[in-house]
Each structure stands twice: as structure tokens, then as C-alpha cells.
């Protein structure tokens, strides 16, 4: 499938949930769930957030709104198919009626997967691909607690298929939640290395959304805003954890999420999905390794967009594409250094003999469709080898 470049209001579609953003607003989760008709809430999170105290805050908010709840915390990084399938059984057993997902991409994607199975039945792999969900999902409130995933506004859910040892991507308007609620205060308990790696995920969302062949003026404005905020605040947020910089990264994640949910992504994510599936690797770290090599590959196809991309990263180039390319690459390198993320596939534990199979899987990933430069298996393998 070829997707034509369409940078005009007359040819774009832009979908977002209701968005609530602000420090201290986690206390509003209960009223959000109640507004969606909830009486018994299925709260999906993970054990790390319970220890940090954020789960307690959400539970208190639900109680303050007169709601009952069931709590499900069997969610691990790169959420697994069986965790989602077990969660759906629990949702049904508890006769819940609204799902709240609190956490990073793993908890929120698990919440989406549980919502799909709760109303559609079957196995999660039945819904892989684009628009394969037939029945409406239960109302969904998603609360991100990292600065990268964008799952709280996106039309994607990514779940690990543990039999095939790959990530399956589900794309549907149905999986965008009813309400996205971000409380940037939750970032204060996120360890420094996760601030860097999740912000790198947002950085790759913004760059890939901006360069996507399905980008529009509506996605561009969000992608550029995300790049500005990340360029301004990533280094300080990682080093100093200041509330202002953390809030900027939370806002950047939201903008990047709105951009990529509507323009889709590119080769970085097409490659990151099979790598994450095979190695259970940190998604932001995988993106960090791939970003520069993919940008170098894409450059001949995106020259006209480079001055605006450079502007997003804080430089004025007067429209000169050569200097814009240099500035974007230099800025990207600086941000990746600041993130503290690994810089090679080898350091992530990827085996060299797996690279051809990873390239083959990436060629089938949905994200490859919107890459600004077409890539065959050989091209993808060459990128992987350079990133090794
Ligand atoms: Fe991502």
C-alpha cells in the first residue's frame, strides 16, 4: 500500500481523545470514570507504580467518587499476550464497566488489550493489524506516568506474542481511550534512566510523525511542538528532575502522541517492534540505537522538510537543506547522549545472526507503510548492521 504525501487540511483526518493535563490532576480519575458511566472500575497498573504511591492516589480518587474497583497488576514491560488475556477474564469476573490504565506504555497497552478482549472475546492475536475490532470497547481512561509512550492518545496497542516471539501491533480508532489524563507530578518518581529512554521514544515519535508520508499540517504542528519541548528540557530533566522540565517532557509526549497516532511512524518503529518482541528490550533504548541510522537513510527523501525539522530542534537555517541536515544530526546526537540510552544493538544484547530475521519481520510491520523512503529487506538489514 502506498500512502501519498498529503500536507493539507483538505486531505487529513485527526482523531484525539478528551485530554486532561496538569499537575495534581490524578485526583480527577474518579470523576472521569464516573462521567463515563462507571460503577465498578477495573484499574490496570504495575507493581512499581504501587510502590511509588500513585496507585493509592487513583484508588482514593475512585473511592472519593463513590466507585468500587478491582485492581490488576499482572503487567510486565512489553506486555505479554497471556497477561492481557488473563486481565480480560478478571474484568469479566469482577463485572467491571470502565477500565483505567495507569503507567507507562506497558500498563496502558495492556489496558487496551484487556478492553478489546472484554467486549470481543477471542485471543489478542486475532486483532493484529488495522481495523480488525468489531465490537465497541468498554470506556477507557488512560493516565501516562512516563514521558514517552503516547499510548494515552494513540490508536495503537502493541502486545508481545509470546509464541511467535514478536510484537503484534493493533491499530484501530477503538483503542484510542475516551479520556487521556496526564499528571506530570508522576514523573517525579521515575528513575533518571527511564526519563531519558522514554523521552527518546517521544523524540522518535515526533521525528517519524513529522517525516511520515501521511503527515499533515495538524500532525506537523504537534510534532514540531514536541521536538521543541524535548530539545529544551531533556538534558535538564534527566540531570536535575526539575518539575518544569519534567512537565515539558510530559507535554512533549502528549504532542508527539497526537502526531504519530494520526500520521503513523516509520522505519525506527518498524525495526523496534521485532527487536522488542524477540529480546524483551526497553523500547526507548531500541529507538535510541536506531534513530540516527534511520535518519541518515531517510535524508535523501526528506530534504524539503529539514529546515522545519531543524527549527523544531532550536536552529534557524534560512531554508538551506545542507546546513539543516547537519544541525538536525548534531542536535539528535546531543539529545541521544543526554538520554543516557545505549548506542548500539550489540549493547542491547541483540545477536548478529538474528539481524536478517529482524529485517524480514520489519518489512511486514505496519509502520513501514508510512516511511518517507521505501525500504526493502536489504535496506533494513543494512540499517541494522550499521546500528550494530
Ligand atoms: Fe514508540
Q: Classify the beta-strand content into a percent band.
A: 5-15%
Count up the helices. Answer: 14
Q: Architecture of the largest domain, CATH level 2? A: Up-down Bundle
Unreliable stretches, pLDDT < 50, 5 or more residues? none
Estimated radius of gyration = 20 Å
Query: What is the terminal separation in angstroms?
Result: 30 Å
Bound molecules: fe (ii) ion
Just give the CATH class of the largest domain. Mainly Alpha
In the CATH hierarchy, what is the superfamily of the largest domain?
A: Dehydroquinate synthase-like - alpha domain
- What structural category arises from helix and sheet content? alpha/beta
Helix content: 40-55%
Average pLDDT works out at 94
State the gist of this model.
Helix content is 50%, strand content 11%.
Which key terms come to mind for this protein?
50% helix; Rossmann fold; alpha/beta; Dehydroquinate synthase-like, alpha domain; single chain; globular; three-stranded mixed beta sheet; binds fe (ii) ion; 14 helices; 388 residues; 2 domains; six-stranded parallel beta sheet; 11% strand
Can you give a write-up of this model?
- With 388 residues, this protein is an alpha/beta fold.
- The chain folds into two domains: 13-186, Rossmann fold (3-Layer(aba) Sandwich), CATH 3.40.50.1970; 191-387, Dehydroquinate synthase-like - alpha domain (Dehydroquinate synthase-like, alpha domain), CATH 1.20.1090.10.
- Helix content is 50%, strand content 11%.
- It is built from 14 helices and nine strands.
- It has helices at 29-35, 47-52, 54-64, 81-93, 105-120, 192-211, 217-240, 243-263, 267-279, 283-298, 306-312, 321-339, 355-363, 377-387, and strands at residues 18-21, 40-44, 68-72, 98-103, 129-130, 140-144, 156-161, 166-171, 179-182.
- It has a six-stranded parallel β-sheet, sandwiched between helices. Strands 5-8-7 form a three-stranded mixed β-sheet.
- A hairpin with a 4-residue loop joins strand 7 and strand 8.
- The longest helix is centred in the middle third of the chain and has 24 residues, at 217-240.
- The chain is globular.
- The mean pLDDT is 94.
- The chain binds fe (ii) ion.
- Fe (ii) ion binds at residues 201, 205, 269, 283.
Amino acid at each position: 500500500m502506498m500512502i501519498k504525501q498529503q500536507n493539507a487540511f483538505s486531505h487529513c483526518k485527526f482523531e484525539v481523545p478528551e485530554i486532561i493535563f496538569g499537575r495534581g490532576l490524578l485526583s480527577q480519575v474518579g470523576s472521569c470514570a464516573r462521567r463515563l458511566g462507571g460503577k465498578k472500575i477495573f484499574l490496570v497498573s504495575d507493581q512499581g507504580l504501587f510502590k511509588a504511591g500513585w496507585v493509592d492516589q487513583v484508588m482514593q480518587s475512585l473511592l472519593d467518587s463513590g466507585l468500587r474497583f478491582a485492581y490488576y497488576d499482572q503487567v510486565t514491560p512489553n506486555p505479554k499476550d497471556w497477561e492481557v488475556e488473563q486481565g480480560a477474564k478478571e474484568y469479566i469476573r469482577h463485572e467491571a464497566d470502565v477500565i483505567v490504565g495507569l503507567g507507562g506504555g506497558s500498563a496502558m497497552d495492556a489496558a487496551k488489550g484487556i478492553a478489546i478482549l472484554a467486549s470481543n472475546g477471542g485471543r489478542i492475536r486475532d486483532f493484529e493489524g488495522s481495523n480488525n475490532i468489531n465490537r465497541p470497547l468498554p470506556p477507557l481512561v488512560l493516565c501516562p506516568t512516563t514521558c514517552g509512550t503516547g499510548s494515552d492518545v494513540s490508536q495503537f496497542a502493541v502486545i508481545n506474542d509470546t509464541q511467535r516471539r514478536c510484537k503484534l501491533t493493533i491499530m484501530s480508532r477503538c483503542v484510542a481511550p475516551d479520556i487521556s489524563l496526564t499528571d506530570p507530578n508522576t514523573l517525579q518518581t521515575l528513575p533518571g534512566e527511564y526519563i531519558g529512554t522514554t523521552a527518546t521514544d517521544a523524540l522518535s515519535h515526533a521525528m517519524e510523525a513529522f517525516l511520515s508520508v501521511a503527515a499533515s499540517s495538524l500532525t506537523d504542528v504537534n510534532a514540531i511542538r514536541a521536538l521543541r519541548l524535548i530539545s529544551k528540557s531533556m538534558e535538564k530533566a534527566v540531570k536535575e528532575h526539575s518539575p518544569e522540565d519534567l512537565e515539558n517532557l510530559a507535554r512533549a509526549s502528549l504532542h508527539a502522541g497526537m502526531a504519530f497516532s494520526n500520521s503513523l511512524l516509520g522505519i525506527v518503529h518498524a525495526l523496534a517492534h521485532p527487536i522488542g518482541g524477540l529480546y524483551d528490550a526497553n523500547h526507548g533504548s531500541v529507538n535510541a540505537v536506531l534513530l540516527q541510522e534511520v535518519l541518515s537513510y531517510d535524508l535523501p527523501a526528506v530534504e524539503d522538510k529539514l529546515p522545519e525539522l531543524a527549527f523544531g530542534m532550536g536552529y534557524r537555517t534560512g531554508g538551506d537543506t545542507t546546513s539543516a541536515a547537519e544541525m538536525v544530526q548534531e542536535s539528535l546526537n546531543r539529545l541521544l547522549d543526554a538520554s543516557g540510552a545505549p548506542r548500539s544493538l550489540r549493547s542491547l544484547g541483540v545477536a548478529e545472526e538474528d539481524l536478517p530475521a529482524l529485517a524480514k519481520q520489519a518489512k511486514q510491520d505496519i509502520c513501514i507503510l508510512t516511511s518517507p523512503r521505501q525500504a526493502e529487506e536489504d535496506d533494513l538489514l543494512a540499517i541494522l548492521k550499521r546500528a550494530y
